Fold this sequence. Notes:
- This protein is of the alpha+beta class.
- It has a domain at 84-260: Oxidoreductase, molybdopterin-binding domain (Sulfite Oxidase, Chain A, domain 2).
- Helices cover 24% and strands 22% of the residues.
- It is built from 5 helices and 12 strands.
- The chain has helices at 23-53, 63-80, 131-135, 163-169, 200-203; strands at residues 57-58, 61-62, 117-121, 124-129, 140-147, 153-162, 184-188, 195-199, 209-214, 217-218, 228-230, 245-249.
- A hairpin with a 2-residue loop joins strand 3 (117-121) and strand 4 (124-129).
- The protein is globular, with a radius of gyration of 27 Å.
- The two termini are 44 Å apart.
- It binds the ligand Nc1nc2c(c(=O)[nH]1)N[C@H]1C(S)=C(S)[C@@H](COP(=O)(O)O)O[C@H]1N2 and molybdenum atom (MO).
- Molybdenum atom (MO) is lined by residues 101, 148-150, 236-237.
Amino acid sequence: MAEIDDTAENLPEKKPHREELTTEQQIRRRTLKAFAWFAAAGIIPYSIWKWIMIQPKQNRLPKVFREVLNANEKVADSYFSNANLAPTFPKERAAKNVRVNGKDGLRSAIDKDAWRLTVERPAQKPLLISLDDLKTMPKQEIIYQFKCIEGWSQIQHWGGVNFAEFVKKYQLGKKTGSDDWYPYVGMKTPDGGYYVGIDTPSALHPQTLLAYEMNDQPLTDPHGAPLRLIIPVKYGVKNLKRIGSIWFSDERPRDFWAERGYDYHVGL
Ligand SMILES: Nc1nc2c(c(=O)[nH]1)N[C@H]1C(S)=C(S)[C@@H](COP(=O)(O)O)O[C@H]1N2
Ligand SMILES: [Mo]
């Protein structure tokens, strides 16, 4: 970038026709014009901001914001309703040879008896939950078409705990003393070798499971024993195998494949 020492005073008194300007003069002119636009662009949002701040308030928020929030809530409500369920299939359609894909975070052996699901909570001790604890909750099964972003899909049968029920039982996901949800859930393997971030509405979708069974059998190691995520509204990449810990957060949790160039949400 050239140094800009031009002030209005340095411009020629009478504006010559473009043809008479040297290339350098033309560049200066354009730079000044660009600056003027830049300044104007800065002023407009400020005036809008001022307008927003003098609008009537509702629950201490300017009403215009509140209206946007209400619209978002409506979107979320329809999202949670059963209108957006992934299609399901009869049990006979489920694959017997279930495809295995990806072993990041699964390369070391784990002691399944010692394993606990760790739930990190703000300003509280982490919760340690055993598989037996989870199995005291009702089991939910799903037979649906699992889709990998690499281009294959397969009808698969999984069983486990409904994630929204799990969240309710352990009172997770909402900010302390409020009804506001944290916008994201993070999950990672015990060794931290694979990790995903998921928007809370998708995590709370009625078909999202913490799965401990596949085809009515305990999960095998390559499929993520002892516990994995099954989230039918997302591509395979988000279906973390061998969950070590879970936490809700305000910031987008790190995501293994998003860090390698995939879209963060990779939804279906
Ligand atoms: N821990 C872990 N979970 C993972 C992966 C991985 O590499 N490590 N790969 C993901 C991808 S890309 C897919 S398609 C599915 C595959 O699950 P499957 O091996 O049970 O078919 O797991 C997902 N979860
Ligand atoms: Mo995948």
